């Protein structure tokens, strides 16, 4: 069992209030004991981050070479510590072994990608017609409050922490409560990478206490949040009180559009990968399969066959494909959606039950589940279930597929499967989502882009665009023309 404490100005803080986290595949095993920070702890974390930023202490804001070295070192240390990180991912959220390894690598990739950025961020300069010169410089936004979810705890944090470090921000990080152990471990890795103490502080506690105070505190310049759309809406409303900058990475219920001319076997593999990764607890999951009606029956048979081949079980076992849900409450939520689908009369093609046998008695396992011929207007098609439940929706034409794909509050991702590339590009233009995959699903390279249209969020992460979320741009006006021609146009003297 790991004892998790907040780390403020480089020092670990104990508390007399704590909670225990059970392992989702064996609820008799306790994984972490987390000390809950007080509001005073949080305030001292914000104060130190503010002080370092405002005074450029340790030359943190000005010395980008130092920051570049730190980022390279963090990436290296994550790779060195990958076994421990994988173990924690398995024990805290039940992420299957192979997926956990890929997740750790993806987090290291993000730190590596942003390492070196500090020396490569430039502004712009321009001579004006009157001979004067303007300089547009990029500066760090200031103190960043990073609030992260439990479902992909390393990459979601890396997407905020790495670019914030690259540009010279200071950080107060509030990780999700389910994943305090892995967040604490990542924080220790970051602390051991040459970063001055207090530049990043990590504070553990409930979202509605610690998270909300971080959002409200007027010494914080920016909130970078990943989580549920409802939480994101509240954060945006609260941040408006002092016009704090926000970026929000929120929910999704994403279409996977399958045409009859696609390579169906490849498409099913893509669908399974996009849908059942992390037991479907993924914002970008391809949770609505939109299939051309003519091939619906054939595709449904293939989907069922593929699901029957999936290994659901102990996430520590090498060949497990689908692990448990993160918690009892998440399991109950998913089961209530399955019940809703059945009540609405949709045909269950496969799954629908809890699994409590063959050594899985003490975990939160649900069979991969598929509903056929679902109306896109129904709740099981419109709402984020965040579990292993796929809904299949039929379409007759390209236009109808696009209408159904867009007919939802979310706009995070979409996959388009066809061998007609002109058609795929035509559709890509018309789908309102931040990431489109053509004949692929759920790949997110660090060099790429991530973010939502509509109620899936505001702002972008990853790639060059991810840097822009952590900078302000300032104009410096240099008068070169001593005649002040522009004054003379307005004043007569
Ligand atoms: P959540 O909104 O419950 O919690 C996310 C974080 O916010 C946690 O750290 C939580 O403690 C904190 N929080 C909760 N209430 C808060 C408040 N009032 N003020 C400040 N902070 C608060 O989400 P979750 O259950 O941890 O994560 C799952 C959700 O995240 C899903 O909806 C999923 O789609 C979304 N998600 C989105 C992306 C993306 O990139 N778009 C990525 C991963 C997850």
From TrEMBL:
Domain Aldehyde dehydrogenase: 19-476
InterPro entries membership: Ald_DH/histidinol_DH, Ald_DH_C, Ald_DH_CS_CYS, Ald_DH_CS_GLU, Ald_DH_N, Aldehyde_DH_dom
Keyword Oxidoreductase recorded: yes
Single GO term (MF): aldehyde dehydrogenase (NAD+) activity
Keywords recorded for this protein, A-Z: Oxidoreductase
EC number: 1.2.1.3
Xref: Pfam families: Aldedh
Catalytic machinery residues: 249
Quaternary structure note: Homotetramer.
PANTHER family: ALDEHYDE DEHYDROGENASE, ALDEHYDE DEHYDROGENASE-RELATED
Family of this protein: Belongs to the aldehyde dehydrogenase family.
UniProt name for this protein: aldehyde dehydrogenase (NAD(+))
Species per Swiss-Prot/TrEMBL record: Saccharolobus caldissimus
Lineage: Archaea, Thermoproteota, Thermoprotei, Sulfolobales, Sulfolobaceae
Record gene name: gbsA
